[in-house]
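Dear all,

This email documents one entry for the complex benchmark we are building for the journal club exercise. For each entry we list the sequence lines for every component of the assembly. Then comes the predicted three-dimensional structure of the complex as a token string, followed by one or two observations. Please use this as the template for your own entries, and keep the labels exactly as they appear.
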Amino acid sequence: MSWHAPRNLDEALALLAERPGLVPFAGGTDLMVGRQTPACGRQYLSLARLTVLRGVRETASGVAIGALTTMTEIGCHPYVCRDLPALAASARATGAIAIQNRATLAGNIMNGSPAADNPPALLAYGAEVVLMSAAGSRRVPYEDFHGGYKQTVCRPGEILTEILVPVPPPGARHYFRKVGARRAQAISKVSLAALLVGRPGSWECVRFGFASVAPIPILARTLAVAITGSDRGLPDDAELAIALSRDIMPRDDIRSTADYRRRVAMNLVREALAPWTRQGGSNASA
Amino acid sequence: MHDDDRSGAVPFKEAPLRKDGTEKVRGTARYIADVRYPGMLYGATLRTRLPGGTVVSIDFDENIAWDEYVVVTAKDIPGVNAVKMIEQDQPVLVEAQYRHAGEPVMLVAHRDPQALGTALAAIRIEERACDEGPVFTIEEALRPMTRQIVAGNVYRDYCMEKGSVARALGEPCHVFEGEYQTGAQEHLYIEPQGMIARVEEGVLTVEGSLQCPYYVHAALVSMTGLSADQVRVLQCATGGAFGGKEEYPSHIACHAALLSLKAGGRPVALIYQRAEDMAVTPKRHPSRTRVRLGADGNGRLRFIDIDFVIDGGAYLTLSPVVLSRGMIHAAGPYRCDHVRVRGRAVATSHPPFGAFRGFGAPQSIFALETAMDGLARTLGMPPEVLRARNVLVPGDLSPAGQGIEGPLDMHRVMEEALEASQYHAKVARCRQWNAQGQASRRGMGIATFYHGAGFTGNGELALRSRAGLRVSAGGLVEILTSTTEMGQGMQTTLSEIVAEALQIPYEGVCVARPDTRDVPNSGPTVASRTCMVVGRILAQAAYKLIARLRAGAALPSAYDYDEFCAACARLHASGDVATVMADYQHPVDSQWDESTFQGSPYRSFAWACYVAEVEVDTTTGEARVLDFTAVQEVGRVVHPTVAAGQIEGGVVQGIGYALFEEVHFGTDGQMANNRVTNYIIPTSADVPPIRVLFQESRAGAGPGGAAGIGELPMDGPAPAIINAINAALGTEIRHVPAMPEHILAAMDRGHL
Amino acid sequence: MTVSCRFTVNGSPVYGHFAPMRRLLDVVRAECGLTATKEGCGEGECGSCAVLLDGALVNSCLVPIAEVDGREVTTLEGLRTDDPLFAAFAASGGTQCGICTPGMIMAARALLNDCPHPDLSEIRRALSGNLCRCTGYTGIYAAIRAAAGQGGE
């Protein structure tokens, strides 16, 4: 057991280069729950003093969110609420207030849970993450970030420092819905965030990010292709369901069943597309 | 949405302040985890892992300094190796054979709680499985050629019969039949269970989180072989119980006592982590109920035929009593000449199921009240009309053959519930809403039911409860009772009753700490009996006290509090005894036949009609209670805030039972979702406005005509909510919890 | 290993060497002797251990003591003794068994600090991380509204 609390980012990256096994500790809301598991001999790297990693700023192309920005800050931040309402909604749906005051966006990503609340919105918005090490930094599209269950492409010596989210054009439909066991303080059974820009026949952007329907949070690419590839309006439900079934791999577990997840995932897709199925083109927002 | 959450409740300003309110809001109330003694050791329990088998051997890793630890096995038990309950079938510690996973085998204690983990990992219990596989469901238990936990896997097989269902079956009438299931329910009191045992001045002293001090006392006496006065049990502030701290505290107390005795009397704390608490302590019995109802064309019930089975788990514990209570309530508050209720408690390989608020009645009432809606559909009759046509009125005989006496008016209870919930208008509004093709469907559901107060039949006679009062020279009256405060407000209610009987201010009364050395055995704190039974005994004690003060201390016939205090001072000065005791008096006319279940099972009932308005999201199958109305006739409301709090809390537990709370069992038969994260109880975001309304007939057997209300609110929400869902969707859901997964599947069957 | 930490609890300075991953909950209860803060689940789910950390509501079972260095902790014992929440919770059915009450009052205090006159939906959201098994929450809403000076009449 050891604990390192570097005072700045350079010091943190130097430490990490020296001891790549250090586990970065952000809000701790996941790490503390597992602290008595066999991994408790761990060595931790506290990020608490790295204030530079906290906060939301506007960039030329979007919104940059520091790794240590908490759910509370994201959920009520004016830029996020204005430009990325699905992400603001997912932050507000993460745990409850006491969790949101500690839990960070990077922590929610790095924990790697397939049921995490914010990844669907990041997938829908086409976010990128910045990984930094003593040797330099690189940007990785978030949709390529999780290699497998609880795995990431983050290399030894790297930490996630920032999340970059491009701002969708005006008139986009932002959709987020978390289906959990209750209305607050729940782990999702299925959740979907979607960004839809354009209209049937001339889509500019169709992105569906799911949680809890596969070993990792996933971007439903086949579904998007089925929708954008159709030049005669929206595909029918059967076609959408077939496409979706190629993207997701739901399973039975203690929180729900594969069948329920499959059906509700499809129902949520329909709900996200509702403006176009009802009137053939409106621009509702989440 | 209604924001006036307390509409209907009597304004709380009139009511005196809760006795335990200040210490609880200030955080100074001492729960067991807040108690510490110098040199205290911390204990832990090693358990079986297989769902029934034999412990073959126990191996200790030699690399551990075992002399630092206190280690206890069954060999260390000085008295009877059984937890004293109805039958002595459940061992305190397993010797060889056992019946379920999670049975305690060994106990270990150490000064440093961190060192316990190391020790537990260094002990290996070798187990051999039973030849036959475990049985985990009622169906499996009753199948021939399965593992016999007890003969036929049936602990008890009872029958209650009035008239002749066989004869009624031969006559033409409309019949509805259905099979209903309810799942296990975890209490999830927010304070996990725990005990501290120590030997103080030669007396084995055990304190902790518990409901029934004398149950624990009796278990300790039996297990240690000590005499009654060598064992002392005290209650700490108890962070919720709901029945969950009725039987299991005896186990933990025995374990902590064994460790302390082995450690030469040093204090040993045995406080469960949440996961252990959820895995091993009893839960509400799962049930399967077959209901067959016959009615004439006008909806008058011709017969009620019920086959009620509960899963008792691997040991008998309290199952016979839960079964009997479930059976007595199974035919509801309805007039019917031909009633048959068969009831069985079966043995399975789960940890034993146990007491939980309602005690069998929520299970059987769920079945009947959901079936009543089924019958109403069969008859093409609105469900409230069917109920109104059949509810008991004064002059009727209940299904147990008990004469119903006035001034009870169940029709008034129903009318108020329908009116307060705007039932008829909302039924019409739901119909409109559902016709609009929205992404949700709405429905109204209703349940009518009653719940008996106190022990069944001759049970109170057998208990011979006693309670008393002690006055100080300054005129402070202390209530002496083993009845415990666990949040239900007993200190407040009993203090009010005593203050009223003595005609002194509420502030002049307090409640002594439940301590078996100081308070008499007033029976267990269960069965909605505190206000009615113990309250009545205390009122008798109060009259005795007045008589003594008049006879020995010149208390005037009319007096104010100053004169009362002066008389108390004179009583003390004269050296007269300042303590009075009173005993339970059984009514001479009360008859109960335990073999036929006929007679008067309870002296008083609380009567209720609950109405739920529910919305189901057709995208996700999520059901949400939009509004809830609970109207009950409770004899008398002693303290409005306490009474309303009991109903509101019970309703929310009932909402959880109906929609959220699902116990998953692992392949070992233990609860698999034994974390607060994975066992879902309602949060503040899930709870609808709850309208609580009381009617007071003053006809209860308790002080001022009060009955008991603690369990009542657990009975009605599940059927009202499921009836509302079925009304909304046109489905036939017949089980709880009705999870979104089930509701979506049921919608398919209903072709919605 | 241990780390040295200096922080305040209810205004009083605390200095000591602690195992870094030791929970703030345990330090407050065992080292400071402040037992109003309760443990209900140990995984941030029930809210019984809620305290304020630099004024923000947190579950003290999820905060390692190393992260408390240099910060201010407020437990129930550190609220103003005349905080109207105390009387309101006692009078309005806001407490039954009492085990969730300290955490509930801390959540209510955090709410009222940000939003002195919350409506019912704000109250529901603010308490949604604090489980109560006794009251059905109704008495708690009444207490908070009474304390905020807009209910109880």
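Observations: Confidence is low (pLDDT under 50) at residues 280-286 of chain A. The longest strand of chain A covers residues 188-199.
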